[in-house]
Structure formats: C-alpha cells, structure tokens
Amino acid sequence: MFEGGFTLEAAEAVAKDDAIASPVIDVLSRVGAQWSLVGAHAVNVYVEPRATVDIDFVVEARKMKPILRALEEEFGVSVPEEELEGIATVGQAYELVTSKL
C-alpha cells in the first residue's frame, strides 16, 4: 500500500526507469511493505524534473529484515547475520547487499 499525496502509479512511473529504484520497488511490493517515495523523485511527479543522485524511500521498520532478505535474493548474494545489526534504512540495506556483488 502506498502512502502519500500521489498515486503509486505516479511514483512508479517516475522511478521505474531508474536502475536502482526499479528492483527496490519490486522488492518492497513483493514483501508487502508499506512504502512511500519521497525526496526529489517524488517532487518530480509534480514539477519539471530535476537531477538527483539518490532515491529516498520511507518504509515500515518492521519489514526491514524481509526487505533485506528479498534484496539478497534479488541480487543473488548472502549477507552474514552479524552484518545486519544496525541496518535501519532501505538505503543501508541496499548498500550492504550491493557491496557483496
């Protein structure tokens, strides 16, 4: 379920072409996490698009472990349990998983 002032379809249209956002959106949907696209990508739904170097998601905290496991599956890597401590954001999870590529 998407939270925010615009539709999931609009957020996905903005982010789907992005090589990073697309697999993350797929993972968030697959684990059933409530999420919101925020920051410049979200603003680009309403105004002339501007360049940005990051993608900001807000997700429910209780879904972080399933999100991390789904990212592992998406990218075909494994993260040792001891490295998971302190992972609190989708960005941290993404960086940890992709560092194993």
Write the layout of secondary structure elements.
Layout: H1 8-15, H2 21-30, E1 35-38, H3 40-43, E2 56-59, H4 64-75, H5 90-98
Antiparallel strand pairs: 1-2
Helix pairs in contact: 2-4, 4-5
Describe this structure in words.
There is one protein chain. It is built from five helices and two strands; from the N terminus they run ααβαβαα. α2 crosses α4 (64-75) and α4 (64-75) packs parallel to α5 (90-98). Helix content is 43%, strand content 8%. A two-stranded antiparallel ribbon has the order 1-2. The chain is globular. With 101 residues, the chain is mainly alpha-helical. The protein has one domain (8-98). The model is unreliable at 1-6 (pLDDT under 50).
Question: Keywords, please?
Answer:
disordered N terminus; mainly alpha; 2 strands; 101 residues
Order of helices and strands: HHEHEHH
Total of helices: 5
Mean pLDDT: 79
Shape: globular
Q: Which strand-content bin applies to the residues? A: 5-15%
Question: What is the helix content?
Answer: 40-55%
List the domain count as a whole number: 1
Distance between the termini: 30 Å
Number of strands: 2
- Calculate Rg over CA atoms: 14 Å
Structural class: mainly alpha
The quaternary state of the protein chains shown equals single chain
Largest sheet: 2 strands, antiparallel
Outline the low-pLDDT stretches.
1-6
Please list the strands of the largest sheet in the order they lie side by side: 1-2
